[in-house]
Amino acid sequence: MLIKGGNANATVTQVLKDVYALKKPYSVLYKKKNITRPFEDQTSLEFFSKKSDCSLFMFGSHNKKRPNNLVIGRMYDYHVLDMIELGIENFVSLKDIKNSKCPEGTKPMLIFAGDDFDVTEDYRRLKSLLIDFFRGPTVSNIRLAGLEYVLHFTALNGKIYFRSYKLLLKKSGCRTPRIELEEMGPSLDLVLRRTHLASDDLYKLSMKMPKALKPKKKKNISHDTFGTTYGRIHMQKQDLSKLQTRKMKGLKKRPAERITEDQEKKSKRIKKN
Amino acid sequence: MEGQSVEELLAKAEQGEAEKLQRITVLKELELEFDLGNLLASDRNPPTGLRCAGPTPEAELRALARDNTQLLINQLWQLPTERVEEAIVARLPEPTTRLPREKPLPRPRPLTRWQQFARLKGIRSKKKTNLVWDEVSGQWRRRWGYQRARDDTKEWLIEVPGNADPLEDQFAKRIQAKKERVAKNELNRLRNLARAHKMQLPSGAGLHPTGHQSKEELGRAMQVAKVSTASVGRFQERLPKEKAPRGSGKKRKFQPLFGDFAAEKKNQLELLRIMNSKKPQLDVTRATNKQMREEDQEEAAKRRKMSQKGKRKGGRQGLGGKRKGGPPSQGGKRKGGLGGKMNTGPPGFGGKRKGGQRPGGKRRK
What we know:
The complex is a heterodimer. Helices cover 25% and strands 32% of the residues of chain A. Chain A is an alpha+beta fold. Chain B: It is found in: Nucleus.
């Protein structure tokens, strides 16, 4: 769901249009301007999401204090879960780069570079939000020749560089091709501004997986830190006297020994009685 | 000599391989983390090369992107592939990144009548074989479906049982019985569905003919039968002495367009007066009804929650809560009901009584 704010300028509008082009047909771009402030009042966003049945949204606006503002967010059960405000610093649009584009509806490859994406909670949520936003529908098979474009996010010096490249597969000697990249799509330099992250319990609730999808634990199998797999076997109690061992002819009981054993047992019994 | 040339050949081959691999290998300090189900790669290496690049790190960004993409493609090419209609397709694994859901988890459906009964009795379903031996055709056939083992629809001879009417059509009887079974099954399925979604089915409660039905019940059944035609009962004739049914007229009555001029004038002046007045008029009937409805809904929601909690924890606490909730709400309802009912009559009067008279002295807080 791509929404324009009351005071969206040309840059922001172009960004929304480009994202719409990238994410067709799974996105809807609202043409009219909506005078709302996502960080203050979320009811209109929730209303829109209910009507269009979209849970991801992007809201663009522009004012003096926050120029070229983009709020990207997601919903859970039609209520706002996370919202992150990003400022656009540098923007090169799809139509400014004169290259051939890939067909719409292709599933992009996503690459996140930079250790910042795992250090701060904000960046981690941002990464999860961007994955959610830009990955296409979940598929089980993918045509290898159909991997056409890649979105590359780099976190560096407090900025996030978003670049999209078209993939060219060149021949290398072996089966895996060599990659050459060609800049294709929108490229944005983003700065993290405000965030509105969901509380921990709401986030936990939204991450709940139904029982059917949880990976089934195999019982009685455990793994070592070194990679050894251990298994447990449960046995019933064994009567060790009746244990079948290898028969060594030399250790066989001679008849004389057996008679003496019987006599000892008898004497024991008499003593007890 | 030969040994040397063999060694040379091997060395050359190795060199060739290394060159080929060089084209696709990328050196990284830390391995990337891959989530192939989402076509995702995360590079944890700190971007040192980029830091010294300056304000426009385009070329460095592109080089970094190329390296990372190469690694991701290497991983993807390792996946098992199949051939689907002239295209090579790789089987992707399940995505490993956990992302929050869009909608909440679906509630577990209530058990159907059969499932409840089976649970009660401890009946478990037996595993049945797919194929059954059919004597007639001398082969293994399905248990049900197309070309099944014991298909009684294809019989060309049915014996008339001793107690049956000799002129009855046994084949038609079989077909009829099958239709009835299918209809019954469908009805039960829809009932289970309605129970799961808590919807109301149109009930045929008093409409099946038993021997002992009262006059009112019969009357009601007759009314329903009359209305269940394609024209919703408009062209159904009445018996000579039958009276028209009560309460089946139009639900809204509109005044004729012109007729009673005095009444029309009065109504229009009243409307203008209400529109001009600064203070909003309070229709006490509607207000009390609204209040009652809200409280009923709250009670129902609370009861539902208590019953859920009660089911989880064990019924006692929930029941105790319910019992406590009972009497005050009933008392409240009664009061509100009286207050509301006192105002029926011409609704305009209720609206007019603003501040002066308080109906019955019982007001909702």
